[in-house]
Amino acid sequence: MMNKNIVSGLIATALLTTGFTSSALAHQAGDIIIRAGVAVVAPNESSENVATFGEFAVSSNTQLGLNFGYMITDNIGIELLAATPFSHDVSLEGVGKIAETKQLPPTLVAQYYFGNAESKLRPYIGLGVNYTNFYDNEFTNDLDGALTNLSMTSSWGLAGQVGIDYQINKSWLVNASVWYAKISTDVKFNLGADAVKIETDIDPWVYMVSIGYTF
């Protein structure tokens, strides 16, 4: 419900502020926009049951988020989301934390910005593709040697975003954005002598607050 309220609020802001303008040009064709701030990945995970323990649970994590954008026209842009590596704890019900993993989720989207080049507030929406690479996968509780050889496959999936820029002056802005990505991975490991593969959907919400600079 909180996720839907945040997204709905940003969309409502887009509809209400498209006419809010200032004398200085904000985003316009040819601009390069770099944003840096705090990014929180909050997994919305689900998986097949792991033996008799139930589904995997995956923790949230906060890292430095980076956006690199280019305005093709005054209203259409492309953007790449990057970040320092996210770290997640993996748990099982009744057992607790059993593993750790790290991931990098670069995401490329095409965007539509509401308003015009003179608008001080520029709400936007975006749609694109996410690639997530999992690495440094390791068991922290191997259940007395029963769990070994952990690996997680990389993922390709659709991604969407809503956000808003507030232009402080010609060069500087502040930003808030919400992303959603379809991330699916096969978690592979050995349970005793048996090779196991558990299909797991991560499907995180990503919340970011940042400061940006326009070239």
What can be said about this structure in brief?
7% of the residues lie in helices and 61% in strands.
Keywords:
Porin; 1 helix; 215 residues; 15 strands; 4-stranded antiparallel sheet; mainly beta
Largest sheet: 8 strands, antiparallel, barrel
Q: What fold name stands as the CATH topology?
A: Porin
CATH class: Mainly Beta
Count of all domains: 1
Order of helices and strands: HEEEEEEEEEEEEEEE
Number of DSSP-assigned strands: 15
Rg on CA atoms, Å: 20 Å
Query: What structural category arises from helix and sheet content?
Result: mainly beta
CATH architectural designation:
Beta Barrel
Strand order of the largest sheet: 1-4-5-8-9-11-12-15
Task: Give the DSSP E fraction (strand runs of 2 or more residues).
Answer: over 45%
Question: What coarse outline follows from CA principal-axis ratios?
Answer: elongated
Q: Note the total helix count.
A: 1
Helix content: under 10%
User: Would you tell me the overall average pLDDT?
Assistant: 90
- The span between the termini is 37 Å
Which stretches are poorly predicted, pLDDT < 50 over at least 5 residues?
10-23
